[in-house]
Amino acid sequence: MSTVISKSGEQFLYQQVIELIGAMQESGTLNPGDKLPSLRKLSAQLSVSIPTVKQAYIELERLGKVEARPKSGYFLRAASFEISSPKRPRFVRRPVPVRCQTLIEEAYEAVHAPNTIPLGVSHPVMASPPDKTLARIMRRVLANAGPKVMAYGPMDGYLPLKRQIAQRYLERGVEARHEDIIVTNGAQEALAIALQSVAKAGDIVAVESPTYFGILELIENLGMMALEIPTCADGICLDDLQESLDEHRVTCCVFSSLINNPTGSCMSDEKRQSIVEILEAKNIPLIEDDVYGELHFDDEDVLPMQAYSKKGLVITCSSFSKTAAPSYRVGWILSNRFEQKAKGLKRALSCSSSLLNQWVINEYLRSGDYDRNIKRLRQVLRTNKERMRALIAESFPEKTCISDPQGGGVVWVELPVGCDSTDLFHLSVESGISITPGVLFSASGKYKRCARISYGLPWDETVEDAVKRVGKLAHQLLND
Ligand SMILES: Cc1ncc(COP(=O)(O)O)c(C=O)c1O
Fold this sequence. Notes:
Elements: H1 13-26, H2 39-46, H3 50-62, E1 66-69, E2 73-76, E3 96-97, H4 101-112, E4 117-118, H5 131-145, H6 159-171, E5 181-185, H7 186-198, E6 204-209, H8 213-221, E7 225-232, E8 235-236, H9 238-247, E9 250-256, H10 269-281, E10 286-289, E11 314-319, E12 330-334, H11 339-350, H12 355-367, H13 369-395, E13 401-402, E14 410-414, H14 421-430, E15 433-434, E16 436-437, E17 450-454, H15 461-479
Parallel strand pairs: 4-15, 6-7, 6-9, 9-10, 10-11
Antiparallel strand pairs: 1-2, 3-7, 5-12, 7-8, 11-12, 13-14, 14-17, 16-17
Helix pairs in contact: 1-3, 2-3, 5-12, 7-8, 7-11, 13-15, 14-15
This protein binds pyridoxal-5'-phosphate.
């Protein structure tokens, strides 16, 4: 790096520092997601004061070029000022039956095909997997607990784990008792139980649009109707929600608690509280899907919507799939007023969840390693996000729009007119790469030009090469 700072020139010193950072970026010394040199280090290197470097960093932050992370320093962002977010499509407020299973099946097959680079799956913990820690704990549990871990566990879950989940809620300000928690096979089973606890075939379920396709698949299988509520940059559009509730007899809502899958958008506390108030005023149960609650990039603890419930109509579904290990299938439901119904459904559906896996997760939480890894994981995911956005902006056709996720491990990409994402999905699969086509995230066939791409992977040349190849295929589709 050139360390030439002119103290006699006309330009302010901090502006020269900004230019130096720009030059480092242009030369490839600094890349999106990289940490900028510390204030102390750069001030010593350039022989300027720490406040001068700080002023430069604050200005870069104001311009959206770097982000400050509490206790971690400043990090270079993708050129977000040049990347626009996907646009909101036109909506007709009408409940529709869902038909998405065939393509979901193809998307799942693509993820699990041998030697496929899985950019189509949302498993953010794989960016910093705790496999060695979990293996160590598993060996210890098997050695010490004896055959009882091989038995059926209690129907509603392993008590010490339920106590810890309840304790974690209490620490976040939610009054949850361990008696209120049922451990499930992942959040997917929790969502299935929740939906069947409050609604039946033919009922109207309001969902965000776009939304996680697993919810749509449940609605399809249970013979319910989906009513899509548009989302804006900061989550569900409240006016649309109000108007939809006025126009239709909505039986329940299924909304992400904080971070939307696939866009990564994050709802403010005020908005989340308003949603609970609007719904409880009309006695409509809300099922909140909180699987990404601990993976928001803002280091502050955020309350689940459960915390704002006054009438007990909020059901919270979550799991350790995104933060510990998806294969363990350990999730839970906090079912509030619907507890008896939920317990009956759990018994009927799967009797109980793996006791061994619950035991291991319980020990993992108790050791403190879970929280330590979450901290690390958030940092890695934030860095990966910037790299992914920059790489897509560089490799995909002009006018591609990319979301700016506030948490989780996926970006939502809108391709230019003329580029169909289901075609891109098929071409990518032929090249050994999975992505998720946009239509899967809508009950009414929206998002034909959108795709979800995961950055929740250990970042390496294989991932970079895969993204570039998908970009080339998108160019090819446009030119055909
Ligand atoms: C938003 C959302 N909810 C629920 C699930 C299901 O989670 P689990 O693997 O714990 O069943 C997923 C998994 O991708 C998800 O993205």
